[in-house]
Each structure stands twice: as C-alpha cells, then as structure tokens.
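Retry 2 of 3 after timeout on previous attempt. Resubmitting structure tokens to design endpoint.
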C-alpha cells in the first residue's frame, strides 16, 4: 500500500483504467471473431455488418490510446481482405 495520498489515488485510477482497457480490448477481439465466423460461414451480409462494427471499435481504440494506429490499420486491412474474399 502506498504511503503517499496521491500515489494511492494513482493506484486506484490505474486499476480502474486497466479494467476498462481490458474490457474494451475483449470487445474488439469478439468483434474480430464475429467477422471471421461470418466469413467462414460464407454469410456476406453478416460479414459486412460485423466488419463495420469491428472497424468502428478499432478506430475508437486509437483515439482512446488503447491500440497503436499501425496495429489498427493492419487489423482493418486483414478483416477487409477476409470480407472481400466472399464478396468476389
């Protein structure tokens, strides 16, 4: 336990942010898996809708500082290629 009041507060806020970030990352991983599952099932409409949701969450993660912009770009590129394979 911290002896300094400000450090105790930092520990509380860090734990809260860590939990929020973990939750947000989990939601993104689930959205990516939904796109992959829709592509595997050859369901174009569901894949496009899932891609839209995943893309939105990935973009939001950049502004929140959770993921780096290059990582998000790679993920979106990978997902769009998957969706385009069944669209063609």
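Retry 2 succeeded. Sequence:
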């Amino acid at each position: 336990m911290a002896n300094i009041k400000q450090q105790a507060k930092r520990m509380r806020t860090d734990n809260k942010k860590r939990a929020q970030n973990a939750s947000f990352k989990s939601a993104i991983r689930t959205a990516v898996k939904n796109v992959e599952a829709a592509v595997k099932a050859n369901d174009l409409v569901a894949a496009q809708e899932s891609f839209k949701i995943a893309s939105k969450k990935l973009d939001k993660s950049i502004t929140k500082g959770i993921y780096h912009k290059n990582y998000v770009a790679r993920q979106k590129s990978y997902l769009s290629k998957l969706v385009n394979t069944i669209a063609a």
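Attempt log closed. The mean pLDDT is 96.
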